[in-house]
Amino acid sequence: MIEARGLVKHYRSTLAVDNLSFDVRPGTVTGFLGPNGAGKSTSMRMIMGLDRPDAGQVRIDGKSYGHLRWPLREVGALLEAKAFHPGRTARAHLAALAASNAIGRRRVEEVLAITGIEKAADRRAGKFSLGMSQRLGIAAALLGDPRVLLLDEPVNGLDPEGIRWIRNLLKNLAAQGRTVLVSSHLISEIAHTADALIVIGQGRLLAQTTVAQLSARASSLEEAFFQLTEGVTDYSGSL
Amino acid sequence: MNTATLRHRGASPVRGSYGFRTVARMEWRKLRTVRSTWYIVAVFAAGMIGLAMLVLKNENYAQLSAAGRASFDPAYDAFLGLVLGQLLLGVLGVLAITTEFSSGMIRATFAAAPRRPLVLAAKAAVLGAVTLAAGEISAFAAFLAGQAMLKAPAPHATLGQPGVLRAVLMAGAYPALIALISLGIGAIIRHTAGAICALVGVLFVLPLLFVPLSPSIQDTAQKFLPHVMAALSLTAVKPVAHMLSPGLTFGLLCAYAMVALAAGAWALARRDA
Fold it and tell me: Using the beta-carbon criterion (under 8 Å), do A70 and B17 form an inter-chain contact?
């Protein structure tokens, strides 16, 4: 369970997140949706305690991130595809992170197998394709077998087989009772995986809803999404 | 999908919490699993030992003036490699944190261990241990190899002579302290190039700024400039008049490292990752 209350974040003069409150419940995949620049990544960094909100707070199962006793065993996150030293092997990267939370080496081998990168585990991660890097990031997120998962645009760079794999993975994780928050700027992608939806635009909450409720609002899910986000995109083109 | 390997919740969570020991284990793994660490340490050791051998082999004691013979310090001469060595281990200290910022690894690190001053403390402990070991081994090797190259009639230094063991120990500790200062600088500046420039500024440019000033000001300033402190106090067996004692100088350098690391910890805790 993630509870965000009244989050505000400025970067210099830009207001990135504006009084944002939402809940992410366990047992279901929640899509975190909004146009580019809506504040999704900023919100996720605030959940993780990486960026400090100017106002408001986030609780994860009742605690702020900084008070978690074993952070990787409680929250797993994929925030960016290449958050690793390019010269370190995938196995060494995972083993280092595992050590910080007293996670055994066997679990490192398990997550390498789950994400299908065990054959590349001893290659330097800087040589990985974007899809492989995403898998390594997901392996890191799964290391602590956490109850809460945050994934920022996880399908980026994955091939169709990889996309199908991650959809199933996320559904399975949610079915085990975990809290799963997945961001995307594509409603069509998120509709394949998520049931619950948090839609934001220009840092504000536009809707906390479900895929079923949203698609009932208009002729199609995409149409409903465009109606909701109309006027909050940062830029628009015209024909 | 390999769901079988995803565990079932329900087992009670492990007792205790992450802390200095677990984070230090992560930092040790990180430091030893990038090649640059070992390249830098190897070049450092080769430079320290090679320069000591070269300098003392070419020492022409027989041709020295009386004044030259009086000030000849065969222990100190074994540590001229520190000019380069301090920069190498300093770069190691900078890279230990700036590569995390350039790659994005820092966010994985802080996600695993949100108490940032604790992360920096663990980094400092691991980096300090590795650089101290590299420094001491290289210093003893440089000293012994250097003395072996020194030809009669030049007087040789031995570890039993007064002040010599201290000079060797401090020659090894000095570049480790520079590595810690550099880690603090890296935590503040975050960018590799910028942090290395700052390091070069402190080690090499700062002393030049005092050159145009009066000798008395220079003498005062030299007491506090890292490389001069190493050359004229820490590794000098024959005391240099205007310098502080080796013990005091060493304490001062430790204080520099503490200040740099405290400032780095403060900067990490205050700014977004």
Answer: yes
The pLDDT assigned to B62 comes to 86
Token pair of A146, please?
Answer: 């956490």
Q: What is the pLDDT of residues A210-229, one digit of tens each?
A: 999 998 888 888 888 888 88
Residue-wise pLDDT for A163-212, tens only, equals 999 999 999 999 999 999 999 988 888 888 999 999 999 999 999 999 99
Give me the pLDDT at residue B177, please.
98
Burial of B241 (0-12, 13-18, 19+ CB in 10 A): exposed
CB contacts < 8 A, A to B, total 124
Distance CA A202, CA A20 (A): 10
What pLDDT does residue A37 have?
A: 86
Q: Are B181 and B256 in contact (CB under 8 A)?
A: yes
Chain A positions touching B29 (Cβ under 8 A) are 92, 95-96, 99
CB A137 within 8 A of CB A78: yes
Q: What is the spatial distance between Cα A31 and Cα A83, in angstroms, rounded to a whole number?
A: 22
Q: Residue type at B95?
A: L
In sequence order, which residues have a C-beta less than 8 Å from that of residue B128 and are 6 or more positions away?
B176, B179, B180
Q: Which residues pair with A11 in a beta bridge?
A: A14
Q: Which residues pair with A199 in a beta bridge?
A: A33, A207
| Cα B121 from Cα B117, distance rounded (Å) | 6
| Whole-number pLDDT of residue A234 | 59
Residue A223 neighbours by CB under 8 Å, 6+ apart: none
The SS3 of residue B257 is: helix
Tell me the chain A residues in contact with residue B1 when contact means C-beta distances shorter than 8 Å: 165, 168-169, 172
Residue appearing with tokens 């003069």 = A13
Q: What is the pLDDT of residues B125-166, one digit of tens each?
A: 999 999 999 999 999 999 999 999 998 889 999 999 999 999
User: What is the spatial distance between Cα B122 and Cα B167, in angstroms, rounded to a whole number?
Assistant: 28
What are the sequence ranges of the domains in chain A?
Answer: 82-146
Of A138, A145, A149, the closest CA to residue A102 belongs to A145
| Closest CA of chain B from A113, distance in Å | 8
How many Å apart are CA B211 and CA B189, to the nearest integer? 28
- In the three-class reduction of DSSP (H, G, I as helix; E, B as strand; rest coil), residue B64 is classed as coil
Domain range annotation of chain B:
19-270
3-state SS, residue A158: coil
* Radius of gyration for the alpha carbons in chain A, expressed in angstroms and rounded: 18
Angle value at C-alpha A75, between A72 and A81, nearest 5 degrees: 85
Bridge pairing between strands A2-11 and A14-24: antiparallel
Query: How many whole angstroms separate alpha carbon B67 and alpha carbon B75?
Result: 18
Q: Which two tokens stand for residue A48?
A: 């993780």
Residues facing residue B158 across a β-bridge = none
